[in-house]
């Protein structure tokens, strides 16, 4: 028996019928139905066993009828989220029987898909040996193997790996490592306490990592609690940052000058590090840097003796078309963070890598990192991550990301470049974002009240049977809409084509369901 997955409705190919742009229009969204539409089965829908179907039905029967019945504090306590009961390859199956093609791997996490038998066996084997060891006193072979795998993936550029559970933890660790580095230098540079990050960035949800983040909406509720030693400069966003007629070289020089001025403003001797995402993911919608940007930023850091911290929590571990995103940027970081694609969603795991410069200072100094977590280097998480990374390496999935990324990029541009409300399509590898604007000429965003990104996400999920990752505040942290695509590395050609097609359908149909008035 094949579970129902939403097939592609007929596409409206008549561009003349698409909504026209207007400088004066306002929009209000007609509420979308919350009941999934039943369509014919998609060619890529997974086939489930009788046992899985029985489990699905049992979960459906037991599902809470409203958020009031749930003891779980969900993202919203007013509504009950759809309940996932199974994952098969690149599909998620919900308790109502609907199967959805997961075109975002959750939040760019499930990079090798669901239900991988190799990863399952590796985790069970580790549990059978031992599930936990206190890192305050003990190490373990599986952690050593994972660390060696990660360092080898940098061609020996990095020196040590530190393993924990989440990207936010990794960024907190990076901040503390940078600070400790300067306190252990000879002579000490204890005045270095400031961090310079970028506007529109997102580095985590804990207070330290959120302080580094430059996304206005995510910071706003906690602004009075955030650290005063974090500062922000403009991001490298060619679509919104480059002036008309400006060359890439001129734009890079402008951003380097801005960073230099920020060092001067704070006092160069007080800055620990410059912090950046090689590809800005959730908050800006997969915005890559222009060529030459990161070498110019590192040159400023080196001029003043500061460290370069690269946040690859979302963009790394193959997602952008190289194992590490910095490997195509012409720079190497002093400290690097990674997470989502590290364990592929099979266990909560993240990492921090430090280069030889940083590691050597610690060796000559205290010989230890003054930081720690109960679950750092968790053996079962390490087993999962090690097997995921071996699969990526042995199956040449990073090369596959490059090729699939070219196809996805080509199809997205073909399908959506001419849409009146698609302002920009950008990305790298299998990490792509689509930004929506009310006017292409002025790049004016829709008002937040329009809920454009969420409307497209809902259309994709409930009508097209595809997951899209919605984001807001794309322009300035408050206004702007985008959706993000980050398919699994082992997606088939047919699945990439389906993702592009259904993304187009969701965009076109969501805008058709908006009500326009002068």
UniProtKB/TrEMBL annotation:
NCBIfam families: PRK07483.1 (NF005685)
Any one Gene Ontology molecular-function term assigned to this protein's record: transaminase activity
Domain of life of the native organism: Eukaryota
Compositional bias per record (Basic residues), positions renumbered to this chain: 18-28
One Pfam family linked to the record: Aminotran_3
Organism, as annotated: Stachybotrys elegans
Keyword Secreted: no
SUPFAM superfamilies membership: PLP-dependent transferases (SSF53383)
Family the UniProt entry places it in: Belongs to the class-III pyridoxal-phosphate-dependent aminotransferase family.
Record-given protein name: Aminotransferase class-III
Upper classification of the organism: Eukaryota, Fungi, Dikarya, Ascomycota, Pezizomycotina
Required co-factors: pyridoxal 5'-phosphate
Keywords: Aminotransferase, Pyridoxal phosphate, Transferase
Biased amino acid composition, Polar residues: 32-57
């Amino acid at each position: 028996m094949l579970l129902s997955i939403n097939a592609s409705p007929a596409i409206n190919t008549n561009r003349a019928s698409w909504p026209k742009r207007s400088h004066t229009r306002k929009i209000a969204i007609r509420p979308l139905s919350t009941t999934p539409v039943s369509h014919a089965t998609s060619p890529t829908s997974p086939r489930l066993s009788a046992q899985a179907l029985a489990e699905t039905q049992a979960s459906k029967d037991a599902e809470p009828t409203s958020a009031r019945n749930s003891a779980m504090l969900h993202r919203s306590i007013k509504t009950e989220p759809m309940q996932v009961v199974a994952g098969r390859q690149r599909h998620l199956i919900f308790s109502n029987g609907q199967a959805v093609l997961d075109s975002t791997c959750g939040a760019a996490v499930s990079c090798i898909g669901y239900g991988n038998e190799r990863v399952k066996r590796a985790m069970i084997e580790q549990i059978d040996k031992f599930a936990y060891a206190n890192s305050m006193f003990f190490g373990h072979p599986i952690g050593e193997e994972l660390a060696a795998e990660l360092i080898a993936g940098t061609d020996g550029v990095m020196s040590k790996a530190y393993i924990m559970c989440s990207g936010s933890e990794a960024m907190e660790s990076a901040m503390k490592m940078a600070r400790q580095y300067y306190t252990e230098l000879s002579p000490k540079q204890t005045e270095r306490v400031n961090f310079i990050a970028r506007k529109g960035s997102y580095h985590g949800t804990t207070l330290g990592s959120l302080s580094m983040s430059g996304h206005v909406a995510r910071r706003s509720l906690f602004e009075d609690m955030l650290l005063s030693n974090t500062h922000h400069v403009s991001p490298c966003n060619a679509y919104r940052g480059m002036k008309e007629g400006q060359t890439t070289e001129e734009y890079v020089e402008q951003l380097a000058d801005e960073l230099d001025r920020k060092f001067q403003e704070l006092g160069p001797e007080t800055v620990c590090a410059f912090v950046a995402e090689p590809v800005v993911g959730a908050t800006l919608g997969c915005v890559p840097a222009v060529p030459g940007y990161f070498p110019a930023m590192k040159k400023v850091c080196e001029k003043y003796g500061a460290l370069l911290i690269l946040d690859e929590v979302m963009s790394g571990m193959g997602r952008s078309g190289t194992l590490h995103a910095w490997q195509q940027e012409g720079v190497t970081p002093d400290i690097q963070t990674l997470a989502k694609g590290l364990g592929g969603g099979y266990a909560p795991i993240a990492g921090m890598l430090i280069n030889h410069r940083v590691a050597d200072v610690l060796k000559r100094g205290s010989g230890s990192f003054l930081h720690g977590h109960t679950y750092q280097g968790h053996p079962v998480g390490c087993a999962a991550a090690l097997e995921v990374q071996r699969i990526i390496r042995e199956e040449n999935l990073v090369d596959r990301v490059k090729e699939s990324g070219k196809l996805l990029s080509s199809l997205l541009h073909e399908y959506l470049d001419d849409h009146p409300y698609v302002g920009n399509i950008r990305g790298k590898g299998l990490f792509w974002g689509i930004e929506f604007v009310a006017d292409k000429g002025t790049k004016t965003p829709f008002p937040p009240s329009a809920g454009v990104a969420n409307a497209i996400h809902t259309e994709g999920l409930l009508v097209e049977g595809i997951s899209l990752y919605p984001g807001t505040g794309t322009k300035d942290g408050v206004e702007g809409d985008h959706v993000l695509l980050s398919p699994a590395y082992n997606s088939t050609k047919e699945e990439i084509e389906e993702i592009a097609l259904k993304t187009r359908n969701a965009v076109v149909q969501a805008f058709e369901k908006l009500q326009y008035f002068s």
